[in-house]
Design a protein that fits this description.
One of its GO terms (cellular component) is plasma membrane. Keywords: Disulfide bond, Glycoprotein, Immunoglobulin domain, Membrane, Signal, Transmembrane, Transmembrane helix. This is Immunoglobulin V-set domain-containing protein. Its main location: membrane. The chain is an alpha+beta fold and about 130 residues long. It folds into two domains: about 70 residues, Immunoglobulins (Immunoglobulin-like, Sandwich), CATH 2.60.40.10; about 55 residues, no CATH class. It is built from two helices and four strands, in the order E-E-E-E-H-H. It has a two-stranded antiparallel sheet with strand order 1-2.
Length: about 130
């Protein structure tokens, strides 16, 4: 049996960048393209035939080269949602603290005369003595 050898391209845009990555024994004719660039975008067709084959299936692959983002979209979404939630919680907390502080201020600043205090104490002591046994 003749040993099958893959051949790299002799010319074209992939010269020096296309490397064999398949396994002929498993009928895998994969290639690896190094240093891929935006000009490599496109649809590529591949037809592999070995003599005495006369027919082969046409392979098609769509290549899209995109720039890698430093911050992922999920990270941005998480920051926006987390930041918004934190702001809402902070606003609610500030509102509650403001209301509490105003209530405390109102209770502390209500003047009560000595006469009113005596009357309140007398009312409470009468209520306690009138408890039926």
């Amino acid at each position: 049996m003749k040993k099958l050898t893959p051949y790299p391209p002799f010319k074209g845009q992939f010269l020096g960048r296309a490397v064999w990555d398949g396994n002929i024994n498993r009928k895998d004719a994969s290639i690896l393209i190094r240093n891929i660039q935006p000009v490599d975008n496109g649809t590529y067709l591949c037809l592999v035939k070995n003599p005495p084959d006369v027919h082969g299936e046409m392979g098609e692959i769509l290549v899209k080269v995109v720039n890698k983002e430093k911050i992922s979209e999920i990270m941005v979404l998480a920051l926006v949602i987390g930041g918004g939630t934190a702001v809402i919680i902070l606003l609610v907390l500030l509102f509650v603290l403001y209301r509490y502080w105003n209530m405390q201020k109102t209770h502390r600043s209500t003047p009560v005369s000595a006469l009113e205090c005596t009357e309140k104490l007398n009312e409470k002591s009468q209520d306690m003595t009138e408890v039926p046994a």
